[in-house]
Amino acid sequence: MDDHRKEFEAERDREIAARELDLPPAEDAGCHNGAERSKAAARAAGAGALMDRLEADYPKGPHDQPQSMCPAFGSLRVGLRMRRVATILSGSACCVYGLTFTSHFYGAKRSVGYVPFSSETLVTGKLFEDIVEAVHQMADPQKYDAVIVTNLCVPTASGVPLQMLPREIDGVRIVGIDVPGFGVPTHAEAKDVLSAAMLSYARQEIEAGPVQQPRSGLADRPTVTLVGEMFPADPVVIGRMLEPMGLAVGPTIPVREWRDLYAALDCAAVAAIHPFYTATFREFTAAGRSIVGSAPIGLDGTDAWLSAIGRTCGVPQARIDQTRNAMRGAISAGLAANRIKGRITLSGYEGSELLVGRLLVELGADLRYVGTACPKTPFNAEDADWLAAHGVTVRFRASLEQDIAAFEEYQPDLAIGTTPVVQKAKEAATPALYFTNLISARPLMGPAGPGSLASIINAAIANKARFEAMNAFFEGVGDGDTAGIWRETPQDRSAYRKKYAAKIKQSRNAVENGDSVGC
Fold it and tell me: I need a labelling partner for 388 at 20 to 30 A (CA). Which of 21, 105, 362, 433 fits?
């Protein structure tokens, strides 16, 4: 009874603090309510340490947040792609409903657990009890190695304490993470949140005693763990580059199975192929592993990366140079045989944008702009400096407005970007490619990169005439409100739209400033 009374009193104190800070009720502290108010609600609910860590790991840019999908999309995807791992979401029903798209889109063919809540269960702490009950129901050692429990915006803002979940149930590991939209800027960085949480758990298991071998067995050479989601052929290509130095490729983070975490930690070096895995790199550092930035991309990138990996792993310099020379010959031949002629702007939210930019420049493209929704880190600083030295403007935490402004300023022959950038370009009769599906989902590393990238870029640029023909064919049918064929062309109502938008903006600001009630 005393414990329940203490919990009730703590909850009461948090509610009083929230009222004093003019915060929204816990159930209203979602991503629609304004990031700063949601952060304040989380701090008032006792999640100050969590918010400090998220703000340190994932600093925002000049704007509030990149225009990306819900960040939990990324962490959910990581869990759904792992063997013998179950996922439970705790958040608003509308958010969970939208996120289940991830399981269908990637063909996971598995259920996503959900713990619903109400204002009463949030305030009384019953939601946490419901989560504990759900975890016990899900934790079947015959089916799962681990159960991932994810707090979305509202439970995080309400201080639902996933760290108080049991560490394991019947041998099934329980891993709780918070992935609020107001704390994790992009879905790419949410992959880091879950990967780091699992690595932390696995590292403690290793320290406690013997652990399982990888399904494929132990490597007979020192390994390099790769961090970042890549096209499946890239780890194979990297492995071939490392082989002459007496090294092998280890697991790729995010992993596909829990036991791969042990092998990932048992490495000679960590390759930060995608540079934004801040919390993941912290776990490797705690395990005494060195981290090498950039990637084996293009001629200069591959040469510098092989040197850094070789030095980190203690490979004799003669052997490093032999490998570098072989790769320089192969990549130089690929670059000479595959040239790109045309002006390009590039943007995306995967974290590999700077790497692709480097390869485009070496292929001869007139690259003017690279925008990425991810932050600048020590592990992509070399890439940013290289691009800047070659006259390319680089924007970290780039907004959609900045990406479109770059397109309008440089008038490229090809725009590579996110869906709205591609749409904008095609409306202007400019060829465009969606970065995620058409560029990052291709082999890019080492000798395979030049031919793979140049072929799709040149084919897209060559489509300019087709876009102009379509533009001419549809000339005169109007656009926007006047699109189509009319007996009487609709009147321009843009002035009314601007006036209405201004009123909506004023109302929204009033809500966020506490001057009115609503959301």
Answer: 433
